[in-house]
Amino acid sequence: MPNTKQPFKLEAKPNPDSFRTCKIPLGFIVERTEVCAYEKSSQESTDDTDGSHDGFRDNYFDVDYCDSEPTDVGSSRQKLPVFRNVERTENDNGASVTQPAEGNLVVDPLLQLTGAASNKPVNVPTTEASDSTFRDGSDLHEGKYFNSKKDLKRKLSDIAMKGNFEFRTRKSNQSLWVIECIDPNCSWRLRASKIVPESTKFVIRKYVGVHCCSLLNRNANHRQATYVVIGEQVAPQYVGVEKGPGPKGVQTFARTKLGAQISYYKAWRGRKHAHTLIRGSPEQSFHILPSYFHVLEKLNPGTVTRIEVDGESRFKYLFLAFGVAIRGFRYMRKVVGIDGTFLKGQYRGVLLVATAQDGNGQCYPLAWGIVDSENEDAWTWFLTQLKEVIGDTDELALISDRAPSIKKAISIVFEKAHHGACAWHVAQNIKNKFKCADIMGSYWSAVNAYRCEDFAGYMTEISHRYPRVAEYLENEVGFEKWSRCHYPGLRYNITTTNMVESLNSMLVNARDFPYVALLDVIQEKMSKWWNDRRIVAMAITAPLTPSRESEFRPRFAQSNGRHTLQLNPVTYHVKGGELEGVVDIFNKTCTCKEFDIDKLPCVHAIAAAHHAQVSVYSLVSPYYTKEYYVLAYGETIYPVGSQSQWDVPNEVATRVVLPREVKERKRGRPKTSRFPSVGEFRKRKNRCGKCGAYGHYKKKCNSQTGSTEGNQPTDVPI
């Protein structure tokens, strides 16, 4: 039966100029005149979740309402604007016009959707863009499905950032999500809910994609540009790379790709979140570490892994040595450099490295370890694991800096191997203690001297100028630790730990990663090295490795014209040049000591081989030959693959490894660079305040046009 009540009226007489008319879609029809809406409770705000209202129709209505507030009717309800049905027709000129139509009245259906009954002007939804409105530019529509609520939120955040508008949540729970434009007068809104309560998929039930808000409400630095959204958007740029864009790069990405202006701190957090998405969290890294090692051992036979935890199952140490590298060490010179470098991640720690050097002079990583710090207990544990891998023989030489913890640990673990000091670190200590950089030439000549007679001459020169330095080198350090000719074992031409420092530099960016991600980078690097060097080795046509062949050929040319006298079937006296030599081609020795120490024929040995009609390549150590080079890299290091593909026993998967306890960091930017070593030089760029160029200061700038000449960085001591 039709309603016979009188039409709804406002008590306050509105200003006619304040009335506005706009188009709305047809919603729920009310038969006659008076329209009321009750304020909904939180229990009533979840209607339409069953999808019974399947979108707005294409019919439109005019609504008259004013900026004056209507009188409340009762304490819990109010009068709402009345919408008049209109009909669209065309005039004689073909233009579209609307005329009032008799019939029913309607109420804005989205007022029921959001429960937003208020005294404010009504949000009028529109689905057509006009001169004063615009669409959000998305491909959303009613009935579109998403795998999860998270995917839907990610999509909407992306649309909001690109459209430079904000939205706010009106209702959100596990099965419903209702949002609207942040401008209360705008028509843009969306309602989505689960398809069925048991499912995780969401479907858009109602959607109005047209904005009618003012441009003054457009905000590039909006609430949807959270660090999580920024991190998800920028994450692909960190796949397959170690560094990726920094915080300023993330700011540029957000501005150019997403249209969002974000702060440096939000960019930093977004970058950190992207790292977590790609490489996992530090806590997760500890949890999957046993499973990771199990898969690594399974795919790479002979691989040795160890995890040490304390009484509370908190991580303490780890050790990793690939089986391929262990077997390949048989074809390496038995000189191993060991050192450590600090990690920059959340749980810090120190990365320990043991590496040999192949016949081509390249790093050959043997073992890796992560410990809490460089102390005696940590080094003792690491070297104990290393001893099980490479053994302990008189032929083995261990080279390190002069840290007391390393020295003590080597004396405890290795009984037969010889310990040598890094000559570079000794030089830095000399410069720092005695301020005598001008004798470094004599020092390095003494380091590299093959004969003790030559060494004595250089030390005499040092003692005449700086007696305290000579005393320090002889008594405190010991000649046998840093001098090539006095070393009791065989260290060949390896006098420093540069091969270890090279590995540390290689991982300068990866040292910020969680432990498992760091190990992934190490495995990836080693896999690439093994493959690339295998290709090079197979392509070699000379008997020796490329670097040794280039070193050997000049000696071969210098041997021409030497006078050789045979003393017995294996001994020859070679004259000519600055130094004479007596060569034993059977024992592979020469009085110049180059042949003895380097195991590469010297000029005298080459001349003796010519006289004896013996192939000079037969006198070369097999460690320098192509055959050993090929055998060292003959196998492959395989990655662990995706975690979803791992086949791990239950006893391994359930092993508990908790993160170690770390001290609370100080406020401010986290420190990611180490303190320079004693006497260390670093490159520092001096920038001119006048022209902006590098390499000089403002007072010394002679440029009037901002020239950048002479902008090379200078070496300055730290």
For the structure shown, list the relevant keywords.
5-stranded antiparallel beta sheet; disordered C terminus; alpha+beta; disordered N terminus; 7-stranded mixed beta sheet
How is this structure best described in words?
The chain has 718 residues and is of the alpha+beta class. The chain is 32% helix and 19% strand. The chain contains 21 helices and 27 strands. A 7-stranded mixed beta sheet has the order 15-16-19-18-17-20-21, with helices on both faces. The longest helix is centred in the C-terminal third of the chain and has 25 residues, at 515-539. The chain is elongated.
- Describe the oligomeric state of these chains in a short phrase: single chain
The low-confidence runs, each spanning 5 or more residues with pLDDT under 50, are 1-88, 95-127, 678-682, 705-718
Structural class: alpha+beta
Strand order of the largest sheet: 15-16-19-18-17-20-21
